[in-house]
Amino acid sequence: MFYRNIIKELQHWADRDDRKPLILRGARQVGKTTAVEIFSKNFDQYIYLNLEKKEAADVFNHNLSTDDLIQAIYLLKNLSPSEGKILLFIDEIQNSPQAVKQMRYFYESAKQLHVVAAGSLFEVMTQDNQVSFPVGRVEYLFMYPLSFDEFLAATGEEQALKYFNTIPLPDFSFSKLLTIFHKYVLLGGMPEVIKTYIEKKDIASLTPIYQGLLTAYLDDVSKYARNNTMVQVIRHTIETSPLEAGRRIKFHGFGNSNYKSREMGEALRTLERAMLVYLIYPSTATEPPIIPDLKKSPRLQFLDTGLINYFAGLQQFFFKMEDLHSFYHGLLAEHSVGQELLAVDMRTPKKPSFWVREKKQSNAEVDYIIPSGKYLIPVEVKAGKTGSLRSLQQFIERSAHPFAVRMNAGPVEKVNAKTANGIPYTLLNLPYFLAARLQSYIKWMIEK
Q1: N or C: which end of the chain has fewer CB within 10 A?
Q2: Distance from C-alpha of 27 to C-alpha of 25, rounded to nearest angstrom
Q3: In the beta sheet, which residues pair with residue 139?
C-alpha cells in the first residue's frame, strides 16, 4: 500500500470545519480505494460500502431519511455507532443515482460524518442517467497514476526523493534521478504495475497486468456508450489512443478509422470524462489568462505513459536509448512531462495548455505554457541537452517578460540567452524529471 500525495489533501479536507462530502475522481485502477483505506487509519471507525454489490446499493433505494439511512448502513455492516471520528466511504457511487442524490443530505443533516465517495465512471454515468450533481453540497479531489515523487517513495529511494525536493537540485544527484526517471517512464504509474515490479523486478511479469488494465477498460465500454454503435467507436478509441498519444489529432478518421468527426469527438470526450484521455487544446495567449482555442486541433494525453509503452510494444527497446527524447520520436519525454503536470493539481481538473502561432508561411508551437503570477512561462521539451528554440524565442518576442524553460536530459542550469532578433532572456534548463516542480523552479528563476 503506497503512500499517495492525495492523502495529505484528504487530511486537510477532514480537518476543516466547513468540509462538505467529498467525491474522489479518477480513472479505474489508479489507487483511489487504497488511498482512502490508508487515510481511514486516522479515524475511530471506518465504514466501507462498495455499490457494485447489490446489497450495498439497495440501502439507498428506499427513500429513507438521513438518520434512518445511517442506521440502515450500520445494520448492513453489523456495526454499532462510534462516539469518535467516523469515515464513511462509498465506493463505485456511479452505480446508484440515489446515492449521488443522497450526498447533499449528508451535507445538510449528517455533518458529524466524514463522507467520501469515489467512482471511476462517475461523470459518465450520472450524465447518462440524467442525475444532477448536488451542486454546492459536495467538493472534489482528482487522482492520477503515481507521480514521479510518489514512485521514488514507493520504491524506497528516500535520498533521491530528498534531493528531488531540494531547489536547486544538487548536480551530484542528477544522474541517479535521471536513471530512476527512465525506469518510471518505462513502467508508468499504475499502482498494481509498480507493486508487482517491486516484488519481482521483472518486466515480463508485468504483461498480464498491462493487458488486464486494457481488458478492464474495454469491458467498461458498455457503461460508457449510449448505444451499440458507440460501443464500437469507443472500443476503437481506447485501443488506438495509446498510439496517438503525444500528437495533435484530428477527430475525423482518428486512429486510421472511417469514423466521422462527430462520433469520434463524442467518444474522445466520453473517455475524457472517464479520465482515460485528455484533450489538451492550444492557446495563442502570451499573458494570463490562458484561453484554449477549441477550434484548433488538440494534443492527446493518455492516462499513463507506461501503458503507452506496453501497447506500442516499446518496452523491449527502452533501455537501449540514451535519453527519452530520442525514443519513440521524442513523444515520451513530452508525454511524461504532461502526465506530471496533470498530477500536480489534485483540487481542480485543470489541464495544461500549449502555445501556437499558425500562419500560412510561419508556424510556431511551444510544448507547454505555465501560468506564474502575472506571467505565462513558455516551456519546451527538447532533445538531449541542445536543440533549436525557434518557437520559444518567438513567444518571448511577443511576451512582456524575459523568462523561459527548456526541459531536457541535462542538469539544472540558468543561462542568459538572446532571441534570433537579439532580445535578451533568461533560459532555465531543467531535467525532465522535475516537471512536477516547475512552479517552484519558475519562482526561483524569477526571484534570482
Answers
A1: C
A2: 7
A3: 22
Q: Report the C-alpha gap between 52 and 61 in whole angstroms.
A: 14
- Which three three-digit cell numbers place residue 276? 482515460
pLDDT at 319 over 60: no
| pLDDT of 324 | 52
Contact 81, 73 (CB under 8 A): no
- Gyration radius of the chain's alpha carbons: 23
Domains of the chain are 6-142 (3.40.50.300), 148-348 (no CATH), 354-447 (no CATH)
Instruction: To the nearest 10°, report the CA torsion of 179, 28, 350, 408.
Output: 10
Q: Is the dihedral angle over the CA atoms 64, 69, 72, 76 positive or is it negative?
A: positive
Which grid cell sits at 419?
532571441
**Residue 328: C-alpha distances to residues 109, 193, 380 (Å):** 54, 22, 17
CA-based angle 180:272:307, to the nearest 5? 30
* Distance from C-alpha of 375 to C-alpha of 110, rounded to nearest angstrom: 44
Residue type, 430: L
Return the H-helix or E-strand segment holding 300: strand 299-302
pLDDT tier at 121 (50, 70, 90 boundaries)? confident
Q: Which three cell numbers stand for residue 400?
A: 512582456
Tell me the Ramachandran region of residue 167: left when phi exceeds 0, alpha when psi lies from -120 to 50, beta otherwise. Answer: beta
Res 320 pLDDT > 60: no
Cis peptide leading into 289, omega within 30 of 0?
A: yes
The grid cell for 17 is: 470545519
pTM: 0.94
pLDDT tier, 221 (very low <50, low <70, confident <90, very high otherwise): confident
**pLDDT tens, residue by residue, 341-384:** 999 999 998 899 999 998 877 789 999 999 999 999 999 998 65
